[in-house]
Amino acid sequence: MTQRRYASDIPDQSGRTAVVTGANSGIGLITARELARHGARVLLACRDERRGKEAASRIRGAVPDADVEFAALDLADLSSVREFAEAYTPDRLDLLINNAGVMALPYGRTADGFETQFGVNHLGHFALTGLLLPKLLGTPGARVVSVSSAVHALSNIDMGDLNSERNYRRWIAYGRSKTANLLFIHELARRTAAIGSALVAAAAHPGYASTNLQTAGVRMENRRVAERVIELGNRIIAQPASTGALPTLYAATAPGVRPDSFTGPRLLGWRGAPAPSWRAGWTLNDVASERLWVASEQLTGVTFAGLGI
């Protein structure tokens, strides 16, 4: 399957409703655009209103009949997550694409006091999924797709230090947050199977794709040289965001996607068309996924009604 062939072979999404977090740029923007191109109604769940509305306009420019709308969502603030879920009015939710994320930031905390990468990349999406779960369970053929990373291989989670308070290393913290994404999908798939639900919980990663995610951390610290080096790598080595979005689109729309699958680029997990991706064994550990689930419910105050085991 070629890259272009899958992008053009996305099944008709007419009548389906999708929420894409972080849809104002990069992979999220491409994902939202292509879902809209194939007929889905897409809600762009973004933190920045101006950028979110600009993204909606850009999609309409590329797809004149696109049904897209901006909705405010700040994953670094659980009150915003709750407000988003409470304001979600459609009677169905076919696709929840947990795409937004931050990478290798200097140490910081969310509005609720969580380490930023763990709070945004995992806890915010955990809470969002839990709050929208009734809509998902009530929609035949619904899917949840979480965007992880090959960098999850840097580290397993540390249940004794989920907020990396003892020894913060930005890339290790990022790897742990991406491991958490995979453990969340593993446990969600396990719990939905236990109640006989057909909801598909799957994960994807973009390989090395050129987005603004890589430069955000160094830009915050005004590290100009590092920023230029990363930008050069994005131009020379990385694949474009349009290709990096294909694994997410595949996990979200391709027939026969299995629960708890992990899709990434075919070529060494680095670039290319979507294919099954390697994942660290610790992301398939039932005990770890259940422990993280319980801790996440306690930290966020969000429980997944009907999925208790």
Describe, in plain words, how this protein is organized in 3D.
The chain contains 11 helices and 10 strands. Helix 6 (170-194) links the parallel strand 5 (143-147) and strand 6. Helix 5 packs parallel to helix 6, helix 5 crosses helix 11 and helix 6 packs across helix 11 (286-300). It has a single domain (3-207, 246-299), classed as NAD(P)-binding Rossmann-like Domain (Rossmann fold, 3-Layer(aba) Sandwich), CATH 3.40.50.720. The protein has helices at 3-8, 26-37, 49-62, 78-87, 116-137, 170-194, 213-220, 224-236, 241-244, 246-253, 286-300; strands at residues 17-21, 41-46, 67-72, 95-98, 143-147, 200-204, 209-210, 239-240, 262-267, 271-276. The protein starts with a helix and ends in a 9-residue tail after the last helix. The chain is globular and about 50 Å long. It is 44% helix and 15% strand. It has an 8-stranded mixed sheet, with helices on both faces. The protein has a two-stranded parallel ribbon with strand order 7-8. The chain has 309 residues and is α/β, with parallel strands linked by helices.
Q: What is Rg?
A: 18 Å
Number of beta strands: 10
Strand content: 15-25%
Taking all residues together, what is the mean pLDDT? 89
Record the SSE blueprint.
Layout (H helix, E strand, L loop, with lengths): L2 H6 L8 E5 L4 H12 L3 E6 L2 H14 L4 E6 L5 H10 L7 E4 L17 H22 L5 E5 L22 H25 L5 E5 L4 E2 L2 H8 L3 H13 L2 E2 H4 L1 H8 L8 E6 L3 E6 L9 H15 L9
Parallel strand pairs: 1-2, 1-4, 2-3, 4-5, 5-6, 6-9, 7-8
Antiparallel strand pairs: 9-10
